[in-house]
Every structure is written in structure tokens, then in C-alpha cells.
Amino acid sequence: MRNAVRFIRKGQLVELRDIEPTAMLLDYLREVEKSPGTKEGCNEGDCGACTVALGRLRNGRLTYEPVNACIQLIGMIDGTEVVTVEDLADRNGKLHPVQSAMVASHASQCGFCTPGFVMSLFTLYQQTETPVTRPQVNDCIAGNLCRCTGYRPIIDAGIAACAGLRNDKFRKNAGDTSGLLAFLADDQDLFIGDDTRFFAAPASLDSLASLYEEYPTATLVGGATDVGLWITKQMRDLPKIIHIGRVRGFDHIEDTGYELLIGAAATFAQVEPWFRKIDPDLGELLRRLGSKQVRASGTLGGNVANGSPIGDTPPALIALGASVELRRGRAARNMPIESFFIEYGMQDRGPGEFLAGLLVPKLAENQIFRCFKVSKRFDQDISSVMGAFRFTVEDDGSISEARIAYGGMAGTPRRARGAEAALNGAQLRDSRAWTKAFTALRGDFTPLDDHRASARYRTETAHALLGKALIEAAGTASSRTRIVGHRERQGDGVR
Length: 495
What we know:
Blueprint: E1 5-9, E2 12-16, H1 25-32, E3 51-58, E4 61-68, E5 81-83, H2 97-104, H3 114-127, H4 134-140, H5 152-161, H6 169-172, H7 174-184, E6 190-193, E7 198-201, H8 205-214, E8 219-221, H9 227-232, E9 240-243, E10 253-255, E11 259-263, H10 268-278, H11 280-287, H12 292-297, H13 300-305, H14 313-320, E12 323-328, E13 331-336, H15 337-340, E14 341-343, E15 346-347, E16 354-361, E17 367-374, E18 385-393, E19 399-407, E20 414-415, H16 417-423, H17 431-444, H18 455-473
Parallel strand pairs: 1-5, 7-9, 8-9
Antiparallel strand pairs: 1-2, 3-4, 3-5, 6-7, 10-11, 11-16, 12-13, 12-16, 14-15, 17-18, 18-19, 19-20
């Protein structure tokens, strides 16, 4: 058992033994370390002003990922290298290529948001080897907001910085940094505090199960992209926190040939390429889920376990026929994912029981999948309505099974049973079956009015999304049904 958070700063080992469970990385950087370059803007992971880079070993390779320091618990950075905007320039004052490109492109005005943009582009610089495209830069900075300079010069700076060879000091020191990170990667459970107030990060699945069984009222935290806001916005005091990010192998993803086995701690960034192989719409769904910062931290398991009725992934997982694995102590059980959601704020999970993984079926040759997210902003926004559809079509053109699921239409993500029944057994191109499905869909849900959308808007949108899915399944090219995200040209969904 270890009682100190350990991480790398400026090439040196830092150990923190006395931390509050809810202490954030941003507060440590600004108030303890006195590094004010990282800014506090929204304090909820939306604006990107607080972006820093975390260096980790992924499959033995050093990689730098952007995170929002304002909702990154200080205990969660154990075993990483923390890089802030103050660290980029050389000791002689020579700017990093990203900083130089920002200056040359006149990409800063008031300057408040600039450190966050620099750090996001820094991670793009580190993660790529060849010149980048404008859509790549757009996706990289989708989680960074600027309200005075405008994005064109910032995008130009990103393209220019990543046009040549990557030869900054971080590349040159990669061997030494990797050695330090390997040294920090121990198999000890982390526990700081006492029985009444603690931050814990178990190193094994058995340790996690034992600890959570002992402290069933503790808050489980994956990436803190949701729990972080409980602390910074709802001002909730969470005295007992168990972080799942250090559990060995808990982010493992395996393709069995028929399904994906996904550990609960796998991040959206890790899951995205696997989902894209199942279907392009799944890949695009994850690309639009939050920002690069959110996807580097947030977990697929957390998106399911928090039971939000407007979570992006549950409707898609329900339509695919996914199941969840739950564990309590040494006991484990599986259930269809739609059965996991009971009602708003309630899931089928007992005290001390946690979501351990997901089983996501791949598509059979005769199955057609579509999913659509409707939100006020195209990027980095919560869904107003999320629709997902899987049709199993036989050789004679009949639908032997329809699975239709929506988010934002009820207190939980839920299947449209009436619409499914209207389509099951019908010919895919039979307009009469479509009409019956549209009518049945109106009886499947009674959505609420709220600040994201009215009940009428949600009902009409759900109707339209089902129509779009059927039109495409019947053979119409997505270039005629979509403005972006054309399936015929994968990748153009990024602006």
C-alpha cells in the first residue's frame, strides 16, 4: 500500500502525501506550485483554458494527451508526467514550435485562452509524425474556446507547427521520460487518508472489488468528466473517492471476432478506433463526444454507469445488443444493457457492485446500423436527442429484427418497442410499415420539456431520425441525407 501521489514535473519526481480527495490539478498548479500559465475559465471542462498535457506509457510508448486540469483530480495524475505551458520553451528562452507558430500567425489577442490552445496543439504535435490537415487541427481544438481573436490564425498556427519534423526537447528526452514513468508504474494500491475521508486508486481488479465492498458509499471515478462537475459546480463534498484508472488491465479491449470485450476504464479515445471498425457512425459518434480533452479522460464504462438519460453511447450500445458485466466482491453477473437502466438516477446495481466491462456485438453481414446525434452545437455538446438503429435484413428484403433506441426521450436511454414491433417482419422498402412505425414511435415515449429541447421538438426529431435511418438502410446514399459525416467518404464529418 502506498500513501503518496507520485508524478513527474520538469524532469523531477514529485510526491504528495497530504491531499484532499476532491483536490484538483488546476488548483495545485496555480496555488501550490505557483504556475499561473494554466488558466481557470469555465471550471467545468468546456472552455479548454486549463488544458495541460499528461505523459503516459501506452503499450510501452510515450504519448502526451490533453486533459482539463480544472476537473482532473490531483490523485488521478499518479504515475504520469504533467506538462504545462511554462514547460514548453527551452532553457535559453527559445519557444516551442507551437508557440513560435502562434506568434507568427498573430493567433493571440487578449491571451487568456492562448495557453490552452498551445497545449492542445502541443499534444497534436506529439501525436503525429507527418503534416496535419485542417480538419485534424479543427478536431484538436474543438475543446478550446476563443472569443476575440478568431480561429483561423490559430488553425494556421497548428498546421504550420506540425508541417515539419518533430524534434523538440520532449522528443529528445523521450527515453529518459519513459524510464521515469516505467519506474513509477508499480503494482501497489494507492490509499491516502483514513476510513472517513480518503482518495484511493487500487492497482488490481481484486483490490478494487474488495475496497468497494468495504466502502460501498464511496464515489467511483473513471475520468472525472462528470464527477468533476459535481465538485466544481454542485459544490458537493465527496469524502471517499475510489479511482479506477490504475486498475491493471481495466482498460483492455479485445476483439473476439464476434464482439468487443471492453474494460470499464477504457477511455473514449481508446475505444474510438475499435468502434469505427464496427461502423463509421459509431466512430463519428465518439469523435463528437466532448472534446479531445474529455475523450482522453472520460471512460465508456463511466458513460454507461452514471445512467444519464442523455448519455451519448448507451442508445448505440442498446441498439447493438450490448451487455454489461457487474461485479461485487468475487461474484459477477451479466445483463443486457437496457436492463441496467431502471429509471432516472437508478440503475440495477447493488451496494458495493460496480460495472466491470461491456460486451459489444459486432455487426453481422446482414445487419445495418445507423446512429445520429442532434445537439445545439455540432461539436462538444450534450445531445438533445440521440437515436440508434440496427436492422437485420434477410435475403428477401424483410426485416427479421429491428432494434431502435433513443436518448433524451425518457428518464433513461430506452428502446422504442412499438416502432420495433411495427418493423419486425416487414419489408424494408414497404412504406406502409414505415408509417406504422412512425405512428407507434409517438406512443413509445412521452419526452419532457427542458432547456435543451421541447417535448414537441424531441418527438419530431425522433421521428425524423427513424426516417433517415430507414431511408439510408433502404439504399439511399448518405450524401443525400446528411450535410457532413458522409459514410461514402469517411472522415469528412470533421469540419
